[in-house]
Amino acid sequence: MSNLPLGPTVGWLRRRLLDPMAALLRQGLSPQGLAWSLAVGLALGVNPVMGTSTLLCALAGVAFRLNQPALQLANYLAYPLQLLLLIPFIRAGERLTGQAPLPLSVSVLVHGAKADAWGTLVALGSRLLPAFLAWALLALPAMALLAVALRPVFSAVAARTRREAP
Question: What pTM did the predictor assign?
Fold first, then answer.
């Protein structure tokens, strides 16, 4: 890659995302395999059932012969999105199943966790299955679109990596 000085964000992205992806391509992972591994890892990583994404990624990797390091890297990077999308998935699940909206906001969740952690978990728990259903309906097409969009990007990176190889 170029020898231009990089800002802290670009440097972090390069070290944490771009360099590992290029290394996987140099080791023989196909651009299509990398695109699918990242798309599946991101899609599974944002599912609304907290604490399940690592296991889901591992199972998907075995079932579909995807690259585990790429899956788990995408899963790891998706964690902030998982938190951001929790309430929207709960809302979508409520609409999908006709449930009355549960009063939810970040401040309500924090207050509820402090005042009655168990009650808050029980209330949220009743919304997780519909939220998971809404996620599944949205994640599957998004995963396919993301894989199709990433494939040409990784094909270009693989071609560039081959040209730069000694």
Answer: 0.78
